[in-house]
């Protein structure tokens, strides 16, 4: 078992939270402002894969139509030195205009959208609806044998909901990845 840094709870993981030198591995959310042109996302992803950096979550969308700019939000893990290397290397890419480490720059708001398909009958169906109400998940599709729930929240909240739905018949999950903004000015 490994300790989950974000929530302080224990979880099963194939990853140790320390690198071979004993340095702590942290999760960071990076916001990268780039030109909205073909090949930019491939270059950013290539930077990560070419150096063996892991991407836990990736979202990208145009944020400035007139300026032709997109925002890439990447959740990645590494030691403090590795995170600094990632930020420096991203900053050197030609189509990159800004790199912000939302984890260290101050408070931020992070949310994710998930769709969860739960199949079940009888008491399992009733329990799934009860838990969905507690977690403020919305039913967006229903058949006689399944529900599709829509949920927004932190990654930890979505994981907690999914963990409770597994024994009730969780069949499929689709997640958008983290969208994040710094709080305040």
Automatic annotation (TrEMBL):
Pathway named in the protein's UniProt entry: Amino-acid biosynthesis; L-isoleucine biosynthesis; L-isoleucine from 2-oxobutanoate: step 1/4; Amino-acid biosynthesis; L-valine biosynthesis; L-valine from pyruvate: step 1/4
Domain ACT residue range list: 29-104
Gene3D superfamilies attached to this UniProt entry: 3.30.70.260, ACT-like. Chain A, domain 2
Catalytic EC class: transferase
Source organism superkingdom: Bacteria
Enzyme Commission no: 2.2.1.6
Molecular function terms, GO-annotated: acetolactate synthase activity; acetolactate synthase regulator activity
InterPro entries: Acetalactate_synth_ssu, Acetolactate_synth/TF_NikR_C, Acetolactate_synth_ssu_C, ACT-like_dom_sf, ACT_dom, AHAS_ACT, AHAS_small-like_ACT
GO cellular component, one term: cytosol
Keyword set, alphabetical order: Amino-acid biosynthesis, Branched-chain amino acid biosynthesis, Transferase
Catalytic activity: 2 pyruvate + H(+) = (2S)-2-acetolactate + CO2
GO biological process: isoleucine biosynthetic process; L-valine biosynthetic process
Family: Belongs to the acetolactate synthase small subunit family.
Subunit structure: Dimer of large and small chains.
Free-text function comment from the UniProt entry: Catalyzes the conversion of 2 pyruvate molecules into acetolactate in the first common step of the biosynthetic pathway of the branched-amino acids such as leucine, isoleucine, and valine.
The protein's name in its UniProt record: Acetolactate synthase small subunit
Species of the source: Falsirhodobacter algicola
Gene responsible for this protein: ilvN
């Amino acid at each position: 078992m490994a300790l989950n840094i974000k929530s302080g709870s224990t979880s099963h993981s194939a990853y140790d939270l320390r690198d071979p030198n004993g340095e702590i591995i942290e999760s960071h959310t990076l916001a990268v402002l780039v030109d909205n042109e073909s090949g930019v996302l491939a270059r950013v992803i290539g930077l990560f894969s070419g150096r063996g950096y892991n991407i836990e979550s990736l979202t990208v969308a145009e944020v400035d139509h007139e300026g032709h700019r997109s925002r890439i939000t990447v959740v990645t893990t590494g030691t403090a030195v590795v995170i600094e290397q990632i930020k420096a290397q991203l900053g050197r890419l030609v189509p990159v205009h800004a790199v912000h480490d939302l984890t260290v720059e101050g408070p931020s708001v992070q949310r994710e959208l998930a769709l969860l398909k739960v199949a079940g009958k009888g008491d399992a169906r009733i329990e799934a609806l009860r838990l969905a109400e507690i977690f403020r998940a919305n039913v967006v599709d229903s058949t006689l044998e399944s529900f599709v729930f829509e949920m927004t929240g932190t990654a930890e909240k979505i994981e907690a909901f999914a963990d409770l739905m597994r024994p009730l018949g969780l069949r499929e999950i689709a997640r958008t990845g983290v969208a994040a903004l710094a709080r305040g000015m």
